[in-house]
């Protein structure tokens, strides 16, 4: 197969040129209100997208043609790499991942602008300018310091192959989802900036990008969970989250985006929080770009980081321009953004949303602080420090638990104000349930205070959400004379945003139950010869056998481990310790027996020269709930996204659950 | 705001929250008295041929190009711990050997050859 690699760089240069033209014409068109200029910009955006697609196709073709004269192909693929992972090598390295970023960005830009034009939106002009400007930055990176088509003077016979750790199904989905999330926030960001620049300060900028925001947020959420699932099943240390700087980099924009998703509701319903909302979307996008930068700068040491390249110094000016420009336009429109409405009462849905925002921002700040503290400390004191998981856990657990409790309380409180009596009546049942769970677990011997509080908060919120569903369906039951199931379906169908949101909340509750289970994990390490046994919790693990097979890629050492409990056979696990030939690297394949109660997680950490296996076993209670919760979240997101665009503001919206189910989508 | 700062301050002061991050030369220069006090993180590259597994222990030597430091750990080691891998180990210096409670390693294939 001949390689088309020679076309790569010219395509990128053309894409850059057209993105530049698009930005320039869009700005000129918007400033002078000239339709013809805006139209040129629109066509240039299309051309820039087409050339980015071409460059991507060329890179993929070079990968599949095994054109090892391309440095990127030589570094991240090999002849023996299977087809699907050759595809994954597209985003497996730094240069390719930036091209992938740009491909998503230009694609989303084309789609979002087309939708906006169809609506005759007045935000098209400036959004085009902002989005094309972002493309210009990423294309400059691709043309200058991070050229994916750089050639090698000496062409190697085979490539180095993709890191075996990345050869996992989760790795095919996790990075694209994270990038989709990061890049997806470009759209609401660009429309927010366009609203400020053009002075169209109504609600259209966020209502019309609502689906984009939800889509980006969902992709980011699922991407983060899949990253955890990958770490859990591949890395073999028995955990799923390590507060690694790069994990934090994906988590920070998630936190601010979640705050944003909630606070736009206030603007929608009460026209408050306007400055706040544009600031939140600016923060979210800045953190997404910052995350992309952290991963590629080499300024923090992490197992995730890419090559220590010269990319870092390019990102800082870009981030600077974005923040200064963003804050500048917010300041410019500050007077017209200020809300004229005020809080009626502390006991209101508005203040619950405000508390939600404060907590999410506090969490984002704490994570940011822990992530960049080493950099600050080094600059200020010259001492290099690192911040470990104990810091993040200490900060995050209290904030997280407060948020979970608030998730239960928030939806119960009515807009504007609520009387104490009504509040007490509505929290009574969940509170009693939570109390009994805590007392019950305490009596059963659960002594971790953090876990008890977590289970209590989760019970409270789960019951509170359940109550909302019951109250919602009861109305349909009495009004339309439906059965419980039909009434429940009807509730969901007619108020997708609201009840979809509750389903997402329920998923989060399940995930937190899984996290709380982490307080009870146990682990054990033993050196076993064939025939030996070890004990962990109530499980007995017997090392029955080890077999060896060789493929073109790796040598596989598969152990057979019989698992029994109280003398009864439970299952057989086959953890492997493999050796990848191309990379000369060992790799453990974890074996997990997963149940809702607990996971038994077995790793062969090493073989002794005499054949004894070093077995590392973990019992991780409730981990299953994390993945189950993520699935529930995904379902909820689907329901929310399928919901209608926000309805007009219900000025008189009071507590809408019991009396007025027809008031659409509070969430 | 104050609550948040208080929370962050309290969390920073908890044991294990922050630790020094040093190269092997910097760690050895500190001397045993200071470096034995708290856990610190040390960074270097695995000296080829030094990784050995015996029983539940793994030993290897890392170097920053100037000073070599033997490391021993009974914790699971990452798959990326191979010759020349970039390692960050968390632990304490005890009698010339760094006893690590956590070892992170970055795969060398992720690095471009230094020109």
Summarize the topology.
The complex is a heterodimer of chains A (667) and B (115).
Chain A lengths: L7 H25 L2 H30 L6 H6 L6 H6 L5 H25 L5 H20 L25 H16 L1 H13 L5 H4 L2 H26 L9 H26 L3 H24 L14 H21 L1 H4 L11 H33 L3 E3 L1 H21 L10 H24 L5 H32 L3 H11 L1 H22 L4 E7 L4 E4 L2 E12 L3 E12 L2 E6 L2 E5 L4 E5 L1 E4 L3 E10 L5 E9 L2 H19 L25
Antiparallel strand pairs in A: 2-11, 3-4, 4-5, 5-6, 5-7, 7-8, 9-10, 10-11
Helix pairs in contact in A: 1-2, 1-6, 2-5, 2-6, 5-6, 5-7, 6-8, 7-10, 8-12, 10-11, 10-21, 11-12, 11-15, 12-13, 15-16, 16-18, 17-18, 18-19, 18-20, 19-20, 20-21
Chain B lengths: L1 H12 L4 E6 H12 L4 E7 L5 E3 L2 E7 L4 E6 L12 E9 L2 E10 L9
Parallel strand pairs in B: 1-2, 5-7
Antiparallel strand pairs in B: 2-4, 2-6, 3-4, 4-5, 6-7
Pair with the biggest interface: A-B, 52 and 41 residues
The low-pLDDT segments of chain A are: 647-667
Helical run tally of chain A: 21
Largest sheet of chain B: 5 strands, mixed, barrel
The average pLDDT value of chain B, as a whole number, equals 79
By secondary-structure content and strand pairing, the structural class of chain A works out as: alpha+beta
Count of extended strands of chain B: 7
CATH fold-level topology of chain B:
OB fold (Dihydrolipoamide Acetyltransferase, E2P)
Order of helices and strands of chain B: HEHEEEEEE
Describe the structure.
- The complex is a heterodimer of chains A (667) and B (115).
- Chain A is 61% helix and 12% strand.
- Chain A has helices at residues 8-32, 35-64, 71-76, 83-88, 94-118, 124-143, 169-184, 186-198, 204-207, 210-235, 245-270, 274-297, 312-332, 334-337, 349-381, 389-409, 420-443, 449-480, 484-494, 496-517, 624-642; strands at residues 385-387, 522-528, 533-536, 539-550, 554-565, 568-573, 576-580, 585-589, 591-594, 598-607, 613-621.
- Chain A has 21 helices and 11 strands.
- In chain A, α12 packs antiparallel against α13 (312-332).
- Among the domains of chain A are: 1-162, no CATH class; 168-299 and 315-338 and 354-387, no CATH class; 521-621.
- In chain A, the strands form 2 sheets. In chain A, strands 3, 4, 5, 6, 7 and 8 form a 6-stranded antiparallel β-sheet that branches.
- Chain B has 115 residues and is of the alpha+beta class.
- Chain B has a single domain (19-108), classed as OB fold (Dihydrolipoamide Acetyltransferase, E2P) (Beta Barrel), CATH 2.40.50.140.
- Chain B has 2 helices and 7 strands, in the order αβαββββββ.
- In chain B, strands 2-4-5-7-6 form a 5-stranded mixed β-barrel.
- In chain B, α2 links the parallel β1 (18-23) and β2 (40-46).
- Chain B is elongated and about 55 Å long.
- The chains are: A alpha+beta (667), B alpha+beta (115).
- At the A-B interface, α15, β1, α16, β2 and β8 of A face α1, β1, β6 and β7 of B.
